[in-house]
Amino acid sequence: MAREPGAPRRRYPHPRSILCYSRLVHELHEDGTVSGSMPILGDHLDVGGRVRMGAITPLADLLAGLLGARAAHPDWTATLDFKLHLDHLPHEGRIHGTCRPLRVGNNTVLSENRLVDDEGRPVGVAHVTFSRLPRRDDTPQTPPPKVGRTELTHAEEETRLPPDQYYGIRLDPLEAAFELDHHERIYNSFGSIQGGAMGALLDRVATLCGERVLQVPTRTVDLHFSYLAPATTGPFRAQAQPLRVEDTGVLSTVELIDLGRDGRQCAVGTARAVPIHHVVG
Hints:
The chain is of the alpha+beta class. The chain contains four helices and 13 strands.
């Protein structure tokens, strides 16, 4: 399943992509906003029976990415910063997002995505910042994202798997860390770890850190990270260190490094994991 260096990639997103596996639906509107939704499936739930942050990050990243591409066209964009803060955590139905531009400048594009459940109850909010990269004369010009609705559910979807098995996570027995190989489930059209998958991996290592410190099941409710470099080679190592420990949760630093590129740091940030019994669903 690992991608060979330089190997051709299928059209993106392909049936094994995290976007199709998440059964995402998105719609680009004439006013430049983007909406979308995802079903809450059994493997999206944590041990407390509520949706995991890592199940939501692909939806938040996809909607922001479409908005950024539309707003900056014909320029290109690169994600700089991703924030997701959760409140109410549903256990069934769908999660719906509405993403709008907060700023479209010469250098950056900032988006806001409000997430709600089927009843309109707030689930959380995401803010994603993109760097705007002016298109050069030698850069291929692509059409802007099309207005309309797209459903990424695919008939060739894989069998549902527990998250650690899906991502191929190998837990470190001693530290709040794990490793995984690069594979087509998680890479994007450029061969780097897809943004939503990156968020899911950092959510997982933050939860692991909280559980190792507090010795109880935890879930991530706040995540903020910055992209430093493309994660293209692997194997990768995600690791977390506690920064502040309280009865109500653990704030940790989180990072993902590319071991195949001499330990290059690809993403760094902070996350807050809380004991599951302290979260009101």
